[in-house]
Design goal:
heterodimer; A: mainly alpha; MetI-like fold; 3 domains; B: mainly alpha; 75% helix; 0% strand
Chain lengths: 416, 463
């Protein structure tokens, strides 16, 4: 081999090596871009929701003074302790007083744009603090939907001009609305709230938990500890694995065809919703439960059996407590998924307009994700921000649940 | 009366039985004069034995009674002369009955319908009567069961083995719930689907190209023309298996490769949970995001490049967002299958002088391919069953087109549309939802079944 030949070969190799390293860097950069893209999308999604949600936790309110002492309203503050304070104030003429004071401070145009139920808000405030009736109070009451739209910058031009004027005078402002967390669904975005849906979600989740957790854990124990290796066991395993992958909407069809046929009176009740979601959550609990039980080392079982425990005692006194953190983690993750589930609940009729929080497991209810879906369908632009606010509340709940699952996993998980 | 009361009563009896039996077991020990005197079972097991006998029969009866008694109450009310002039069938009759029931049960204050007023009293009477029967029989059963078990207690009574046998039965029943659920899904879908095929020819349904059911129209002879589901299947595949996968496969695969092969452990520690968050966001939130943010962009972009048919609901918007939703799923499946490739193969390739990317492209991915393909199949099955994103962003018009800027509808969208409308339960439009659900169920089942087999065989190959 001659000298220049080697040199040429070295050059070729060096050039190729350079190419190969460049390809290596490109590939790595591509991987980084993929991860960064996912992270950016997540950040963008959360940012879109959060920035729009800020407006959803506020509402447009008109601010004006009411001189109760001079209003001529004859009502004894002491009588307001009983439950019918709102009715008493109504018959004492509170709505008229509110309208008159609003007209004085805001002009008749402005007063007309006061929300028609605004006096109820005030009545409830008076009921909790009857002392207000003895003096002049600066009140802030919800504006009408049209004026709220004007303040946002859409809607009719007249409303926009009026909103601009009142806002400039400091009489109209978008203020934090704590009532959003305590009211229920309504037809106007100014007076909606999510408490009804939230309570419905909680009741539904309670039913789901009470049904899916025991059944799931017991099934996991049976399959992992006792089941003989035969065809039946295999069928059970296959059906659990398949159920875990069946689209959620199919469970809704099952709930519609079976549960609603058995309990036709409980349409859109948390009981039926919870039962449907329990069937969906159960396989998740079984699968995570089996993994947790499998992770408990056989030496624990051997030791318990060796000192004379029966097989049931071994499992229930020793294996299950050690596997519990893992099972709970899986359960919380399954419940979080059920909490965000919408489609199966639409199937079983949980999409009705429900303006009062559900009283129990059998009264009509809505749940948070369905409420989000219903609001997102509204034409009224005022619902956009409200929807985002409800989404933020839902995401916070999911975050807390997932955080709890991660905490449990880190705190109690044992490496054997 | 709340249906929970009999159950609570049964549980109360069980508690009493538990305490009584336990103290009886202790009494055996005391009678023997020695607290260490051998009983066959610990006192607690005697307690559980009696408690089970007190609770289980009573609770089973209470549950059965809960589902049977409404029918009995209704027939009792029907026997009343006031029920004679009710309309024979239909919504009016149901609403009158529901109103009267509501007033009688105390959940409503007054009936709107005058016909309901006459029925309130019979309802109240029947409710009381059957409620009383329920409680009495529950208590009797609980007491009889508990007493029977209690009388069997002896120092050498094998309470533990019996309780354990009951526990094993409970475990078996719990695991059978999965089979019952699968069976229930199959049976209910199949039953309604067969009814649907009584109206529409299955071939017309599967291969027809026009979808336009009218839930209000009376079913006529040429019904099948409006029930061709091919456009729905196409829309489902186009959105879920094409557009979503074009987004999810490269991004998910590259994320998995980067996180497993390149990223430092700190980056990995933070990015993996981040991807999991992406998987944990509820689909209704993705749907809202798709409809409100992504879809207008797509429309503007489509119009900017000269596609006049670009609409504010498009297959592209739904598919893109669905793809993003699926990224973590593909990524974790790819992660698993790459991790399952033996380290020796990777080391061998690196030792020959291959760069990391060459090792990944020429060794790891080919070796992990079966697992990755199975993961993609699972991802597709998840995408085609996804409902909320398409309901909120894809549109309602069924059309056979390959233009992603147009609206397109899917199987899941039509299931929701057919079942949340006002149509009656016997109408072919409503039943078609079950037929669509059946097709969806079979397809996802097949995809999952094949994918799980592939994964299993693939794991075995390297074990």
């Amino acid at each position: 081999m001659t000298e220049p030949d080697t040199l040429a070969r070295q050059q070729v190799v060096a050039a190729r090596l350079k190419q190969r390293y460049a390809a290596e860097r490109r590939f790595k950069a591509l991987g980084f871009v993929a991860v960064a893209f996912s992270a950016l999308v997540l950040a963008f999604l959360l940012w879109t929701m959060a920035s729009s949600a800020i407006g959803g936790f506020k509402r447009a309110e008109l601010r004006f003074p009411i001189d109760f002492a001079a209003s001529g309203m004859t009502i004894d503050p002491a009588q307001l302790d009983s439950g019918d304070a709102v009715q008493r104030l109504e018959s004492a003429g509170l709505p008229a007083v509110v309208m008159a004071s609003a007209a004085k401070a805001l002009g008749s145009e402005g007063a007309a744009e006061l929300d028609s139920g605004a006096w109820r808000d005030l009545a409830r405030r008076i009921a909790s603090d009857p002392g207000m009736l003895r003096s002049t109070a600066d009140v802030s009451l919800p504006a009408s939907d049209d004026l709220a739209a004007g303040l946002r910058g859409d809607g009719k031009d007249a409303n926009k001009a009026l909103a601009d004027r009142l806002a400039k005078e400091g009489k109209l402002a978008s203020v934090f609305d704590p009532g959003f967390m305590t009211r229920s669904d309504a037809t106007e975005p100014q007076s909606v709230g999510i408490w009804g849906a939230l309570k419905g979600s909680m009741l539904t989740m309670l039913v789901t938990l009470l049904l899916a957790f025991p059944v799931g854990v017991l099934a996991a124990v049976y399959l992992e500890e006792y089941a003989p290796k035969n065809r039946w066991t295999e069928i059970i395993e296959v059906s659990i694995n398949n159920l875990a992958a069946v689209p959620s909407i199919i469970f809704g069809l099952l709930g519609l065809a079976v549960f609603l046929a058995i309990f036709p009176n409980y349409r859109s009740a948390p009981l039926i919703g919870g039962m449907t979601l329990a069937l969906m959550t159960m396989p998740v609990i079984v699968i995570s439960g089996r993994n947790a039980i499998k992770a408990v080392p056989p030496s624990i079982r051997d030791a318990a059996l060796a000192v004379g425990a029966s097989r049931v005692q071994t499992v229930f006194h020793h294996v299950l407590p050690l596997a519990l953190p893992g099972i709970l983690t899986g359960t919380i993750i399954g419940m979080a998924r059920a909490l965000g589930e919408t489609a199966p609940l639409l199937m079983i009729g949980m999409r009705a307009f429900v303006a009062t929080p559900p009283e129990g497991f059998t009264s009509p209810a809505s749940v948070l994700p369905v409420q989000i879906f219903l609001w997102s369908d509204e034409i009224n632009r005022g619902f956009v921000e409200r929807t985002s606010a409800a989404i933020v509340v839902l995401l916070l709940f999911l975050l807390v649940m997932n955080g709890l699952a991660i905490y449990l996993r880190n705190k109690f998980e044992k490496r054997w | 009366m709340s249906p929970a009361i009999p159950i609570l009563l049964a549980l109360g009896l069980g508690l009493i039985g538990w305490l009584a039996a336990r103290s009886r077991a202790w009494a055996f020990k005391r009678a023997a004069g020695d607290v260490r005197a051998p009983l066959h079972s610990l006192p607690n097991y005697h307690g559980w034995y009696v408690a089970l006998w007190a609770v289980v029969p009573a609770a089973v009866f209470a549950l059965v009674w809960n589902s049977v008694s409404p029918g009995l109450i209704l027939s009792h009310v029907m026997a009343n002369p006031a029920a004679a002039n009710l309309p024979a069938f239909g919504i009016e009759r149901d609403s009158i009955l529901a109103e009267a029931y509501g007033v009688a049960a105390g959940s409503a204050f007054g009936a709107f319908n005058p016909a309901a007023n006459g029925l309130v009293e019979p309802f109240r009477e029947a409710l009381q009567q059957y409620g009383l029967i329920g409680i009495v029989v529950t208590l009797l059963l609980g007491f009889a069961g508990g007493a029977y078990a209690f009388l069997k207690l002896r120092p050498d009574f094998t309470a533990r083995t019996r309780v354990e046998r009951a526990v094993m039965t409970g475990l078996l029943l719990a695991s059978l719930v999965a089979i019952f659920t699968t069976f229930g899904i199959l049976a209910s879908l199949l039953f309604e689907t067969i009814r649907f095929f009584g109206f529409v020819n299955p071939l017309e349904f599967l291969f027809g190209t026009h979808w336009g059911p009218d839930p209000m129209a009376t079913p006529g002879p040429n019904l099948g023309e409006n029930y061709g589901a091919l456009p729905l299947f196409w829309g489902t595949i186009f959105i879920g298996a094409v557009i979503a996968m074009i987004v999810a496969i490269p991004l998910g695969l590259m994320s998995a490769i980067y996180l497993t092969q390149y990223a430092s452990s700190t980056v990995r520690k933070w990015m993996k949970p981040l991807l999991e968050i992406l998987a944990g966001v509820p689909t209704v939130v993705y749907g809202y995001f798709a409809a409100l943010t992504v879809a207008p962009w797509i429309r503007d972009f489509g119009q900017a490049i000269g596609i006049s048919s670009a609409s504010s609901e498009s297959a592209l918007a739904a598919g893109l967002v669905m793809g993003i939703m699926i990224i973590p799923f593909v990524s974790s499946m790819a992660d698993d299958s790459i991790a399952a490739v033996p380290q020796a193969m990777r080391d061998g390739s690196l030792a020959m002088g291959a760069t990391t990317s060459e090792t990944i492209k020429k060794v790891l991915i080919p070796a992990a391919l079966p697992g990755i393909v199975a993961g993609v199949m699972l991802a597709v099955s998840r995408a085609i069953g996804e409902t909320m994103i398409v309901v909120m962003a894809a549109g309602a018009t069924a059309r056979l087109t390959a233009n992603p800027f147009e609206t397109m509808t899917t199987v899941t969208f039509q299931i929701v549309a057919m079942l949340t409308g006002e149509g009656s339960f016997d109408h072919p439009a409503t039943l078609s939802a079950f037929a669509l659900g059946f097709v969806l169920f079979l397809v996802t089942l097949a995809l999952n079944f094949i994918a799980l087999r592939v994964v299993k065989r693939f794991r075995e190959a390297y074990d």
